[in-house]
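Posted in: Structural Biology > Protein-Ligand Complexes

Title: Requesting predicted complex, manganese (II) ion in pocket

I'd be grateful if someone could produce the 3D structure tokens for the following input. Sequence and ligand are given below.
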Amino acid sequence: IEKNQIAQHNDTLLGKHQKQLSHLKNEWESVDIEKVIQKLVDFQIAIPSWALGTGGTRFGRFAINGGEPRNIEEKIEDVGLLHALNASSGAISLHIPWDIPQNPEQIKSLAASYGLKFDAVNSNTFQDQPGQALSYKFGSLQHVDKAVRKLAIEHNVEVIKQGIALGSESLTVWLADGSCFPGQLNFRKAFENTLNSLQEIYAALPANWKMFVEYKAYEPNFYSTTVGDWGQSLLYANKLGEQAYTLVDLGHHLPNANIEQIVALLLMEGKLGGFHFNDSKYGDDDLTTGSIKPYQLFLIFNELVEGMDARGMDHATSLGWMIDASHNVKDPLEDLLQSIEAIMIAYAQALLVDRKALTEAQQNNDVVACQEILQHTFRSDLRSIVAEARLRAGAALSPLNLYRNLGCRKSLIGERGQNTVATGL
Ligand code: PSV
Ligand code: MN
Ligand code: MN
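-- Reply #1 --
Done. Output follows.
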């Protein structure tokens, strides 16, 4: 995508945009909007390498689009395209071995040519790889057989090495480990085995790295999961040490969990490491961020901003921000643009909450005022400040429209063909 294509697109929308922005500035004259815009410019969300092809469920996969990236280079190209459109997708998160960089130096400089960094690297001990000597069928880091645990530990250490070569600074460990039936597992031994294994991986972390311990309530195991909730993740993180943190994936909770409260307490403990954004209606974890529960997303960001400010943390760099979703029925790039937009809007809303008034209302137990304060920003249309942040960063006022108007998917199909299948999920 050329700079002049973005400029032309912006020219056609500029008049209307400026009107909306000045209206918004009038409405919010007591707020330092310039500061908010700068925070939005700085905020970057990593794109997972597995979200660039059409996903699927265990019932099937419909590769509707064509032009899917066939290798890691093309995945980087796709994230580069997103970043050119919205200036907010400046990082990529790799899943190994779904995406193995054969020549890390080359991959790193390709990414840099699009202004992209490498976010957390993700290990995979939830699938057996072709030719693998031992199976993860009954778990990996928790396994009753030491030899299986060793295999999984070695894989994680290898992933750290790959990440170092790419300039990543964190490892995300998500384990499918658990059990499907009562009695199958000794919970305490499974926990202890997992902890011992994680300790060995932790010992291989460079000093400037973080380890994210991701939890998930269920799936693929349906009776117990060995890192099943934030309490268990926090236990591991606390026992492991300073470099270990809990990672919150929005879709990994039991229905109606109060995720904003979880976030607030993890931040308070200095143990919130990062996020996987997605949305869900039932027990799923792959819907477009903000498509089902935008109010929840705002409430989460409200706690994030409050908690990070209370601890003097830099919003953009203190936590790992990543999308984790890959659905069946949309063009994945359009889906990602929608997710990023939803995240940015929720973040902007949280930045505009009148903290002083909220604290005062809380202190006075003025429950009605508390709700009014939060819903005032949630119900305000802040899209034009998000668009202004993009404009200032050299990106498109309306990324999704530009993507469609330029026929980006059609060009990708032209280059890569109709029947391409992306690696990964
Ligand atoms: C598992 O559901 C998960 O959320 C983990 O983050 C994995 O790494 C990712 O999805 C891809 O399977
Ligand atoms: Mn996840
Ligand atoms: Mn998930």
